[in-house]
Specification:
The complex is a heterodimer.
Chain A lengths: L3 E4 L2 E5 L4 E7 L5 E7 L5 E7 L5 E4 L2 E5 L5 E6 L8 E8 L8 E2 L3 E6 L1
Parallel strand pairs in A: 2-11
Antiparallel strand pairs in A: 1-3, 3-8, 4-5, 4-9, 6-7, 7-8, 9-10, 9-11
Chain B lengths: L3 E4 L2 E4 L5 E7 L6 E7 L5 E8 L5 E2 L8 E7 L2 E6 L8 E9 L4 E4 L3 E5 L1
Parallel strand pairs in B: 2-11
Antiparallel strand pairs in B: 1-3, 3-8, 4-5, 4-9, 5-6, 7-8, 9-10, 9-11
C-alpha cells in the first residue's frame, strides 16, 4: 500500500473558491514538505512542517501538520488560475531531510 | 538563493547511446544532491543520493552501472544514463539541500526520450 496518500487525486475549482488538499502517512514523520509542480517542470518549494500542530502560511496558502505528525493539509484561500498545477507532499522519514518519499500528487485546475 | 539548475532541459537520443545530465547549485554549495525519476502522471521516485567526494548511494532496484552518478564538486552532480533504452525515457529531476532546516530545492528537470 502507498505509504503517503494524497487526496483528492484531482480537483477542479472555480476561481475565488477555497480548497483543501490532504496528505496522510501511515508512519510518524520527522518532516513534511509541500511542493507545487507544473507539468514537465521542476518542483517549487512551498513549505516545510516539522513540529506537531505546526501551521505555516504564505500568501494565500496555509499548511498544517497534525499533532501526531501523520497528516497534513494544504489550504488555498480564494484560488486563482496561478494556483493551478500539481501539488505534492513529501515526507522525511529519517530526520535527515534526505530520502523524501512523495505522495501521488493532487492535480488542481482553477476555472474562470 | 537556493537555485538549482539542470542541463539539458530536453534530450532525445538513439537507443544504445549514453546521456549525461548535469545538476548545479547556482548560489550555494551542496555536499549532497538527490536524483529522482518521474513517470508521466506519477510521483517522484528517489533513485540515488549523490555525495560530494564519495560514491553515490543508490535506492533498491536502481542499477548502479546503468545510472552513473558523479559529484565532483560542491556545486555539480552529473547523472549519466548509459546505453539508454526506450524504457529509460522519463523525467529526471535533481535536488539539493539548503538552509537551516535542510529544505530540498529542486531543479527544473530533464526530459529524456530514447528512440
Amino acid at each position: 500500500s502507498q505509504e503517503l496518500e494524497q487526496s483528492p487525486q484531482s480537483l477542479i475549482v472555480q476561481e475565488g473558491k477555497n480548497l483543501t488538499i490532504n496528505c496522510t502517512s501511515s508512519k510518524t514523520l520527522y518532516g513534511l514538505y509541500w511542493y507545487k509542480q507544473k507539468y514537465g517542470e521542476g518542483l517549487i518549494f512551498l513549505m516545510m512542517l516539522q513540529k506537531g500542530g505546526e501551521e505555516k502560511s504564505h500568501e494565500k496558502i496555509t499548511a498544517k501538520l497534525d499533532e501526531k505528525k501523520q497528516q497534513s493539509s494544504l489550504h488555498i484561500t480564494a484560488s486563482q488560475p496561478s494556483h493551478a498545477g500539481i501539488y505534492l507532499c513529501g515526507a522525511d522519514r529519517t530526520g535527515t531531510a534526505s530520502k523524501l518519499t512523495f505522495g501521488t500528487g493532487t492535480r488542481l485546475q482553477v476555472t474562470l | 538563493g537556493a537555485v538549482v539548475s539542470q542541463h539539458p532541459s530536453r534530450v532525445i537520443c538513439k537507443s544504445g547511446t549514453s546521456v549525461k545530465i548535469e545538476c548545479r547549485s547556482l548560489d550555494f554549495q551542496a555536499t549532497t544532491m538527490f536524483w529522482y525519476r518521474q513517470f508521466p502522471k506519477q510521483s517522484l521516485m528517489l533513485m540515488a543520493t549523490s555525495n560530494e567526494g564519495s560514491k553515490a548511494t543508490y535506492e533498491q532496484g536502481v542499477e548502479k552501472d546503468k545510472f552513473l552518478i558523479n559529484h565532483a564538486s560542491l556545486t555539480l552532480s552529473t547523472l549519466t544514463v548509459t546505453s539508454a533504452h526506450p524504457e529509460d525515457s522519463s523525467f529526471y529531476i535533481c535536488s539539493a539541500r539548503f538552509g537551516r532546516n535542510n529544505e530540498q530545492f529542486f531543479g527544473p528537470g530533464t526530459r529524456l526520450t530514447v528512440l
